[in-house]
Task: structure prediction
Amino acid sequence: FQTSDCYVSSYDGDEVAVYSAGGTYLRSFTAPGLDRPRGVAFVTDGRIYVASEGTDEVFVFDEDEQYLTQFSHAELSDPTGMALVDGTELHVCSYANDQVVVFDLETQRSFAEVGGRSQFHHLGVSVGVAYRYDADEFLVVTEERIDELIDLLLDATLVVGYNIKGFDYEV
Result:
């Protein structure tokens, strides 16, 4: 499923508005019960997922923007955004459950200094930084305190970061 149109969740309008690539309003769609939509994600088969913050649900539409179903989960509270991983796994950011952590890691050495990309264990941690939504605070650690960061990440429902699976977790 590909489109050049832009889909915008209309929080106050309880709908998803569709605009052309040039910014012209084309249409909108909604479903009974959709309340304060906050995020839109697309699946390769054409299904459209819309996070409904007001009902703690995710609404599902087909490629023609027709309502199909909706679902929820006990830990889903105020869903605000979504991402599709590997084309099949839907990740939903749940704002009010206070278990979202944003994190990044910097190393002491480069790949060139340690003999290539297969030598993650020799890079060393210079600094690890995590932002906790539940406490509205940052955790900053050096290699000596890396266990604190690991514990925080293990307790999180959702960890957000750039290339964390292919780099940061390996280090």
User: Anything to note?
Assistant: The radius of gyration is 20 Å.
